[in-house]
Write a structure and sequence with these properties.
With 318 residues, the chain is of the alpha/beta class. It contains eight helices and 14 strands. The strands form three sheets. Strands 1-2-6-5-7-8-10-13-14 form a nine-stranded mixed sheet, sandwiched between helices. Strands 9-12-11 form a three-stranded antiparallel sheet. The chain starts with a helix and ends with a helix.
Length: 318
């Protein structure tokens, strides 16, 4: 009897997931070549809001979410089926989603996590972040150039990233705020409407993160036991990784508009917990972004209903 019940549950789950994948595929309105590099062509996919969904909130148009996927700079795919349940939630709630390719800057690069090896690995990761940000900025420029056809307001884009995609996103925002050359390709004065980071960090060779201009409203979500993308920091002199807990100190000290949710005892699973963390995203999008409020939240979450699993580690990735 037990095996029969398990089989029935498995069939029901497969049917439900099939419905989700089918709905996501229906919402896919197009795939666009946005840049050509020496090594590859770069595309993005556009997922439209579900027909009949509410496209505004209290009279304000909902932003487009520009998603940068994770994969340790060595793998991943812009429209992996594992994202579809989350895309469906976003589309059903009236949000357009654009999910981009970017060059994988650590693919094929030997990784070494010994004391000496960490320095070289960190330097290679800094280059990978810059490469990813360069591609992200090209995608933004393509959206500007084709805004009418895509039906996207480029001034109303919230950047979203998970894991390495969150590292790229946070790095790109830092490049913009500090007026760095890599961001000079963007229209003058441009910045994202907001940023959502699933287990992200700043990887840099310039020491603890500093911002010449205030970053856009930012939502940080991180597991307190995450050692894949550091919740705290790991650094050798000015070279290192500064996680959400450190960014919180910087943002609080400078009075930036941000929220941080610290998920007690979770590791890197928070990087892929999009569906369970939808309520936190929704609150941020509605209040900090569309209503333009300074909803500063610093919360430690200990909720057994948030799924936890053995997530990617440095050893498993490299």
């Amino acid at each position: 009897m037990k095996k029969t019940l398990t089989a029935i549950v498995a069939v029901v789950v497969m049917i439900c997931l099939s419905d989700v994948f089918s709905a996501s595929a229906q919402n896919l309105s197009g795939t666009y070549l946005y840049a050509q590099r020496d090594t590859c062509d770069l595309f993005f996919d556009v997922y439209e809001p579900t027909e009949g969904s509410e496209l505004t909130f209290e009279g304000m148009p909902k932003p487009t979410l520009l998603f940068v996927y994770g994969g340790g700079f060595v793998g991943g795919f812009r429209s992996n089926e594992r994202y579809f349940p989350w895309f469906k939630i976003l589309n059903d709630n009236g949000y357009k989603v654009i999910t981009i390719d970017y060059r994988l800057g650590l693919k094929g690069v030997p990784m070494n996590f010994s004391l000496i090896g960490k320095i070289k690995t960190a330097k290679n990761t800094v280059k990978a972040v810059e490469m990813g940000a360069e591609d992200l900025f090209s995608a933004v420029n393509y959206i500007f150039e084709n805004a009418e056809a895509l039906e996207v307001d480029p001034q109303n884009i919230v950047l979203v990233g998970n894991s390495s995609g969150a590292i790229i996103s946070l790095g790109a925002e830092k490049f913009i705020c500090n007026g760095e050359k890599i961001a000079s390709v963007l229209p003058e004065g441009y910045n994202f409407k907001g940023l959502i980071s699933f287990a992200g960090a700043i990887v840099d060779d310039d020491g603890s993160p500093k911002y010449k201009a205030a970053p856009c409203p930012t939502l940080l979500m991180h597991g307190t036991a995450d050692s894949t993308v550091q919740y705290n920091k790991t650094a050798v002199f000015k070279l290192g990784m500064w996680g959400s807990n450190v960014l919180d100190d910087v943002f609080e000290k400078n009075g930036y508009n941000y929220s941080i949710y610290r998920f007690k005892d979770h590791a890197h699973d928070i990087a892929d917990n999009y569906v369970a963390l939808w309520p936190y995203q929704k609150y941020f999008l509605e209040n900090n972004i569309m209503k333009g409020q300074r909803c500063i939240i610093d919360a430690s979450i200990d909720d057994p209903n948030i799924p936890s699993w053995e997530a990617a580690t440095l050893d498993s990735l490299y």
